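Supplementary notes for students who missed Thursday's class. We covered one full example, reproduced here. Read the sequence, then the structure, then the short commentary at the end.
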Amino acid sequence: MDSEIKNSILKTGTTILGIVCKEGVVMAADRQATMGHSVAKKDFKKVTQINDYLVMSVAGGASDAQRFKRLLAAELKLKELRAKSRPTVKQSANLLSSISYSGIRQPSMLPAIVGSLLAGVNDDGSVELYTIGPDGTIDDVTDYDANIGSGMPYVLGLLERQYKKDLSIKECIELAKEALKSSTQRDIASGYGIDVFTITKEGIKKVVEQEIKPEYKDKE
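Structure (token representation):
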């Protein structure tokens, strides 16, 4: 199974990223969904707000990724109703970790290979970012991460050089845009647009929504 996960990383056409900033977290992703060597969809939402306090981004099989988001949102709502209190970001990440673990451990002809980033704001205003691997591995992110997407090498290479601790939200937004645009220039499985969210104690905001449109120009 471990070798299967490693091989799937090479096939996971996506760029997702999360950056920890002074005031919170910036989450971003491209929009291209691939099917083999073809573009299946040009406006697939890989980073989305799943409830009032959480943003999730996904890399992997489209159907599994969509199911994971729906399942996580539903399970968290049930937990909130039972406990009469909202789950923390860490509890939410642990639940997603369990969902991911079950996705590859249960007998199946097609294991659910999905890597995720989860960021959110707690009741006390603190903001956290977690990365969850396809095997259920969970890590608290204190700087940045791009999980298993095919655009990961391009994103991490840029962030390694340009990220600094305690960057402002505004600086992190620009850094996320630059990282995504760098990836879409070189990764054949990423492109067609970018979406960027901010998660702070003031709440969740979608701050960037851009399309990438090809143009044909006559050679001068």
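Commentary. Residues 2-210 form a domain with the Glutamine Phosphoribosylpyrophosphate, subunit 1, domain 1 fold (CATH 3.60.20.10). The first helix runs from residue 2 to 9. If anything here is unclear, bring it to office hours.
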